[in-house]
Write a structure and sequence with these properties.
heterodimer; A: 108 residues; mainly beta; 6-stranded mixed β-sheet; B: 112 residues; 7-stranded mixed β-sheet; 4-stranded antiparallel β-sheet; globular
Chain lengths: 108, 112
Amino acid sequence: AQRVTQPEKLLSVFKGAPVELKCNYSYSGSPELFWYVQYSRQRLQLLLRHISRESIKGFTADLNKGETSFHLKKPFAQEEDSAMYYCALGSGTYKYIFGTGTRLKVLA
Amino acid sequence: DGGITQSPKYLFRKEGQNVTLSCEQNLNHDAMYWYRQDPGQGLRLIYYSQIVNDFQKGDIAEGYSVSREKKESFPLTVTSAQKNPTAFYLCASSMGRNQPQHFGDGTRLSIL
């Protein structure tokens, strides 16, 4: 079955500390993976996708097919990174599977 | 300003009443989606539409209905058969398969 798992509901880190938001997926084919972010009082928006291999707002995510993971990382967290983060899987159809989300709190 | 527009922002439903949530997009996207967002459960797919006059059930379609008569519009009706309709509803669109989704601001539905 296709599934996306985000094991942490809440992740708290201090400003300047490294951040890693975990995402594991279950999918037998070639996955298309995304990270979406929802800042307070803003709409859900795309942060990055694995195929573009770019860094957005200092965040990167590498697809590890062996571990079926797509963890989101940032070396130095900023207070403005506090938000809800969702990992999503595109399964080759028009359907997407979302994880349950991780709330990141960056403490001053 | 291009994007997805959802209305209303807040909606209240009485027992036994059907209510319709509006979703309009001007991105010229073929695919449109409705999700339900509950605390701790992430986004769950209600219905999606790949193209005009076509739509498919998602994972939690019971108690909901949709139509796709125009490319720009994908309204969602929450029927009286939906016993637990209180939630935050998100509409999204995408250019196609495996493409990034664009989301609206959402509609919060509550029961009176």
